[in-house]
Amino acid sequence: MEEDNKEFKILNRNIEQISIYYGFFLIIWGITISFVSDSKSFTSFIPSYLGLIILILSFLSTKFISKKKLLMHLVALFGLITMLGGFDLIRVIVKGNIFGNFWADLSKLMMLITGSIFVYLCFMSFKFVRQIKYK
User: Fold this and answer.
1) Where are the alpha helices (DSSP H) in 8-86?
2) Which residues are CB-neighbours of 106 under 8 A, at least 6 positions away?
3) Is the distance from CB of 129 to CB of 8 less than 8 angstroms?
4) Does the pLDDT of residue 86 top 90, yes or no?
5) What count of other Cβ atoms lies within 10 Å of the Cβ of residue 97?
C-alpha cells in the first residue's frame, strides 16, 4: 500500500479505481460461474449484481466529486454485503456439505475472501482520509 500526500493508493491505484476493478471482477465472475455451472438460478448471478452496483457507484464517485464521500461509503457498504454473502459458506460447513454444490460454494468462498479484502482496503482508505483531514 502506497500513500502519497493527498490520496490513499494501492498498487498505484486510488480506492475508486480499485472499486471499479472489483466491480468488473464480480460481474465477470458471476457471469462466468453461471455459464460454467450451467446454472438456471438467478442466485448464481448475485456476485454480478453486487459488482454492477459497486461499479456504478464507484464510477459516479469519479464524476461527482462533491458526492464522492457518500458514494464511496455506499460502495463500502456493498463490499460489506458481498463479504457477508460469503459467510453463508459457514452454514454449508456446519451442515457438513462443503462443496456439495461446488460452484455455489466456490462463489461464496470468493465473496468472503475478496469482500473481506475489499472492505479492509475501504476502511484503510477512509482512515487515511481522516488522518489527512485532521493533520
Assistant:
1) 15-36, 46-63, 68-86
2) 33, 99
3) yes
4) yes
5) 11
Q: Are 110 and 71 in contact (CB under 8 A)?
A: no
> Residue 88: what pLDDT?
94
d(CA 78, CA 72): 10
Per-residue pLDDT, 3: 46
Question: What is the chain's mean pLDDT, rounded?
Answer: 93
Residue type, 28: I
Q: What is the pTM assigned to this prediction?
A: 0.91
Strand partners for 9: 2, 14
Q: How far apart are CA 68 and CA 41, in angstroms?
A: 35
Q: Where are the domains of the chain?
A: 12-133
What are the grid coordinates assigned to 36, written together? 460454467
Largest CA distance in the chain: 54
3-state DSSP call for residue 9? strand
For the chain, how big is the Rg over CA atoms in Å? 16
What lies within 8 Å, CB to CB, of 49 at 6+ separation is 30
Contact 33, 103 (CB under 8 A): yes
